[in-house]
Design the sequence.
């Protein structure tokens, strides 16, 4: 068994871009334009950048939820690595013993490994169980050690994490497609970096104007902002909030899940717009396009509108909504700071949030005219984001001409 010496890289925010950043930082990979490891902002850009999408889901026995897309979700991991110029050494097997040997071989060669595992099964998981015990999410985590029966992991916390090898092996085998999958990566050259950064920006711009899936034009890009604003009141739509998120616990679920997607879902806050602005600053240097710095400032200017939208979803003026927002932020920040040491605090947060959800069934603070006024303000905040993002994306498009 072995642990990589002096592994100190725990800076990742998103489970894909953050894990790749941490792995390459340990290996000493340095970008030509910064002389430092590829930033998570650069990796976000290379993965496809930002976008917008609106979906809602309702399953029997569970609270409904909103799924907002704030960044490219169509094969972003492979897209990121290919555009970075990374050489990928992928190992996958159906045998657990072979899987452990593959991992040990990587560590003994001096490389951290990207290993896919079901985050919901991890001892340190912050999953609240709201989507049931069978819920899974296979994500790549950085493994930098196997020692004394434990796997040592870097995964969205500034603290080192560890889980028993047997538990980790079970989590690795949860889903057939990613079963016992692991990868090591190296970046030998950056000769195509400029053209790939250029392609990444253009892909992000395109995502706001076109739908990647036929028949879902209203769910993606600029049309999705309009769709979200429309379904708040339009009862003719099958996804109307009055049908999917009616007054009470279900509406509360729609509001909290929207907030989480914008602020907490590995975005770094503000729907990843500030991170994307950082990417454009780097792209300006890589492509020698000073106009991209102006484009970057436009996206920074959108951030307050996203913040206002979050406050419209869970405003200070409604005590249980404010408390829920604060608890969700506390949960994210506590795990980032303490890792597994946050477990007790997070369990208390989950318990309190469930009490708030239950209270929404009996005493919902928005009824009649109050609900209408609340939704009108929410719609206005959505459309404000739309207006500012349309200007920012249009200006970015001009900067690339």
Sequence:
């Amino acid at each position: 068994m072995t642990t990589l010496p002096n592994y100190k890289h725990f800076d990742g925010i998103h489970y894909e871009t953050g894990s790749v950043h941490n792995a390459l930082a340990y290996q000493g990979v340095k970008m030509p334009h910064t002389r430092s490891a590829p930033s998570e902002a650069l990796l976000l850009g290379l993965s496809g950048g930002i976008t917008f999408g609106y979906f809602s889901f309702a399953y029997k026995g569970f609270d409904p939820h909103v799924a907002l897309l704030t960044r490219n979700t169509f094969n972003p991991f492979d897209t990121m690595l290919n555009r970075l110029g990374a050489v990928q050494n992928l190992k996958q097997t159906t045998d657990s013993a072979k899987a452990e040997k593959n991992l040990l071989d990587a560590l003994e060669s001096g490389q951290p490994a990207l290993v896919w595992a079901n985050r919901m099964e991890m001892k340190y998981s912050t999953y609240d169980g709201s989507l049931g015990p069978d819920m899974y999410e296979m994500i790549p985590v950085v493994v930098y050690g196997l020692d004394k029966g434990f796997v040592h992991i870097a995964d969205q916390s500034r603290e080192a994490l560890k889980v028993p090898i047997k538990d980790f092996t079970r989590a690795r085998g949860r889903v057939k497609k990613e079963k016992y999958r692991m990868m090591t990566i190296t970046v030998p050259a950056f000769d195509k970096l400029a053209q790939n950064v250029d392609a990444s920006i253009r892909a992000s711009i395109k995502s706001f104007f076109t739908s990647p899936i036929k028949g879902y034009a209203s769910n993606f890009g600029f049309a999705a902002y309009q769709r979200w604003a429309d379904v708040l009141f339009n009862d003719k739509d099958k996804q109307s909030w009055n049908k999917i998120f009616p007054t009470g616990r279900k509406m509360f679920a729609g509001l909290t899940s929207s907030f989480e997607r914008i602020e907490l879902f590995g975005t770094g806050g503000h729907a990843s717009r500030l991170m994307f602005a950082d990417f454009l600053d780097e792209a300006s240097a890589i492509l020698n396009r000073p106009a991209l710095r102006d484009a970057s400032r436009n996206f920074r200017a959108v951030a307050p509108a996203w913040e206002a939208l979050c406050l419209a979803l869970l405003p200070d003026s409604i005590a249980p909504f404010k408390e829920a927002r604060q608890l969700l932020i506390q949960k994210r920040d506590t795990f980032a700071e303490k890792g597994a040491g946050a477990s007790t605090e997070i369990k208390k947060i989950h318990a309190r949030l469930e009490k708030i959800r239950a209270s929404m069934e009996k005493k919902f603070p928005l009824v009649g005219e109050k609900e209408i006024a609340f939704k009108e303000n929410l719609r206005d905040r959505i459309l404000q984001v739309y207006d500012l993002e349309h200007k920012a994306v249009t200006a970015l498009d001009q900067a690339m001409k």
About this structure: Residues 112 and 143 are 6 Å apart (CA to CA). The two ends are 54 Å apart (CA to CA). DSSP finds 14 helices and nine strands in the chain.
